[in-house]
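If you are new to this repository, start here. Below is one unmodified record pulled from the training split, so you can see the exact layout before writing a loader.
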Amino acid sequence: MKTALVIRHTPFEGIAGFRAPVEAAGYTIDRIDVTDPAFPTIDFDEPDLVVMMGGPMGVYETDRYPWIACEIVRLSRRIMLDRPTLGVCLGGQMIAAALGARVFPGPVKEVGFAPVTISDAGLDSPMRHLVDVPVLHFHGDTFDLPEGAELLASSDLYAHQGFRRGDNILALQCHPEMGEDPRFEDWLEDELYITAAGLTVAELRAQHVAHGSTAVAAGRRMIVDWLERLDI
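And here is the target side for that same chain:
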C-alpha cells in the first residue's frame, strides 16, 4: 500500500478536496500537525507522497515558528531525492524556500475566488485543468521562482501562482482544494485579513457558494493528472 503524509500548519487547512483523488490512487493517508511533539522526528523521505498544506504564518518567520527551519531542511532533502511532493499556499512557499528561492511579503492581500492564467508550460501540465476556473486565493506572501523550476500559472496580482520541478514536485499558491470543506468558516473568521483585500466576509462567502464546487472538481482533476504523471 502506498503512503501519503499530509503536513498541516494549522488545523483548518487540511487536504480537503484533494483527499478523494489521493485515496482513489491507492494511497493510505496519514496526517501530522507541526505542533505535534513528534513532528521534529518525522522522516520526510519515507512516505511515497508528501502533501504540505497552507497556514497563516510566513516562511521567513523562523524566530516565531522554530519548526519552519527544521521543516525546510527535511523538505530540501526530499526534493533532492525527487520524491513526489505537493505544496499548497504556505506549502508551495516552503517548496520554493527548500529550492533556494526567496519568500517574502507581497504588496497586497490576494483573497477571493478568481481564475489564474495558465502559461504555455502550464497547458502541458496538471494545472491545465484550472483554465478559466475561479479558485480560492488567500495569501499575502510570494516567492521568487526557484532556479530550474517551470512557471505554470500567474494571476493579475501575483506572477507566481504555480510551478513544478520535473513531474514529481508541484507547488501551488492558490487553493484548488477548497470549496466544499466546512472548515472554510474558520477562514472567514479572519475578517481583518479579508477586508484588507477589499472584500467583505459576506462577499467571500457568496463567492464560495457560487464557485466552490466547480473549483474543487477542477482541483481534483488536476491531482488525478499529477499523480498519473509521477516518475516513481
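Two things worth knowing about this chain: The mean pLDDT is 97. The longest helix spans residues 201-229.
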